[in-house]
Design brief:
The chain is an alpha/beta fold. The chain has two domains: 239 residues, Aminopeptidase (3-Layer(aba) Sandwich), CATH 3.40.630; 106 residues, Alpha-Beta Plaits (2-Layer Sandwich), CATH 3.30.70. Helices cover 31% and strands 27% of the residues. It has ten helices and 16 strands. The chain has a six-stranded mixed beta sheet with strand order 1-2-6-3-7-15. Strands 10-11-9-12 form a four-stranded antiparallel beta sheet, covered by helices on one side. It has a three-stranded antiparallel beta sheet with strand order 4-5-16. The radius of gyration is 23 Å and the shape is elongated.
Length: 366
């Protein structure tokens, strides 16, 4: 009897052709679960609309979680030369499909030593991170790989944290000839003070350790009896600045007339360089002729959400150039995609050979 098989590029292409903006992932989850079933896995779509798959029955618990939602914006799915275009090719359907195909090709000895849990997670591109939060207390991994574009030779050890800040000002309306600052101007002054604080924090500091700020929205409502203005910005936080400490600074700079609301509090995370997981990934990359390189990302991903729940070795991995994230030319190089599958499969074989599971109770699948 022939082993179950899916053509890798066509499997990924099919996933890219199904739109899955955050909050609308169910159809692509069903497609991915069907593919995992064809590859011999137990597979289903869970209550958070995650695409779930399990293969193996050994004591070592390995979770491979990558998000299957995307930002908005259509990138026509097509192959041009050796490039596969489509929204999600890099961020991050491509890495998740890499996980599925790498696990599906593992030999029986690996499946006897370990159980591999695949999670195609929902709403990573939204502040909710619904899919990752849903499985946080349902799985008890010994090792975790997060699906994000690192380049097939890259191993990402850390991501910055995040804090979303919404500032509002409402005040009685007055004639524009008055010299008093209006509601919008007061918010601009506040944001300017935050910029100055951040820039002072970053003097002489490498990029990963800098605080980053981005103005995301600014709205002024037409004034009648009241002036109303609202400003939204986010901060990317290095390990030296935790969300609660950042909030203390932000409140100290704000006059009492400005209302602040904080959300998306994700802690920064940096993992160690030398673990059984990083050693296995380096071996897998070298086996395909690559040169492993460690990376630290200035963005945020589900690693930040799960690290406080899963205190185990964790890295992010996946083919693709993260510079193409969210762009109108998002694509993955097909040879890189195939090398990523092979490198990860070799890495997982190496991991189960060298690692031993930590003794802990395991929660039944749910």
């Amino acid at each position: 009897m022939a082993e179950p098989h899916l053509e890798p590029v066509e499997f990924l292409r099919g996933a890219l052709e199904i739109p899955s903006v955050s909050g609308s992932e169910r159809e692509v989850a069903k497609y991915l679960a069907a593919g995992m079933k064809r590859l011999g896995m137990k597979a289903w779509v869970d209550e958070a609309d995650n695409a779930r798959g399990v293969l193996g029955h050994g004591p070592l618990q390995v979770v491979l979680l990558g998000h299957i939602d995307t930002v908005a914006g259509v990138v026509p799915v097509r192959i041009e030369g050796e490039k596969l275009f489509g929204r999600g090719a890099v961020d991050a359907k491509g890495p998740f499909v890499t996980f599925v195909l790498a696990v599906a090709g593992l030999p029986g000895s690996a499946l006897e030593a370990a159980t591999f849990h695949l999670v195609g997670a929902t709403e990573e591109e939204a502040p909710s991170s619904k899919g990752a939060r849903y499985v946080a207390d349902k799985l008890k991994p010994d090792y975790v790989i997060i699906g994000e574009p690192s380049g097939w030779q890259g191993i990402t050890l850390g991501y910055k944290g995040r804090l979303l800040v919404r500032a509002r000002r409402e005040k009685d309306h007055f004639h524009s000839a008055h010299q008093e600052a209006n509601a919008a101007e007061e918010l601009i002054s506040y944001f300017t003070s935050i910029k100055a604080w951040v820039e002072a924090m970053n003097v002489g500091v490498r990029a990963f350790d800098q605080v980053q700020y981005t103005l995301r929205d600014f709205r002024i409502q037409p004034a009648e009896l009241k002036q109303k203005a609202e400003l939204l910005f986010d901060l990317r936080l290095p390990p030296r600045l935790q969300p609660e400490e950042a909030i203390r600074h932000l409140m100290a700079y704000a006059p009492p007339t400005i209302d602040l609301d904080f959300s998306g509090r994700e802690v920064p995370y940096v993992g160690p360089k030398d673990t059984p997981l990083t050693r296995a990934l380096r071996l897998g990359i070298r086996a395909q002729g690559g040169t492993p390189v460690f990376k630290y990302k200035t963005g945020t991903c589900d690693m930040n959400v799960l690290a406080p729940h899963w205190a185990v070795p964790m890295i992010a991995y996946g083919p693709g150039d993260s510079i193409l994230d969210h762009t109108p030319i998002e694509h993955v190089e097909i040879p890189e995609f195939l090398k990523g599958i092979a490198a990860l499969r070799t890495a997982l074989e190496a991991l189960v050979r060298q690692a031993r599971p930590a003794p802990q109770p395991h929660t039944p699948l749910g």
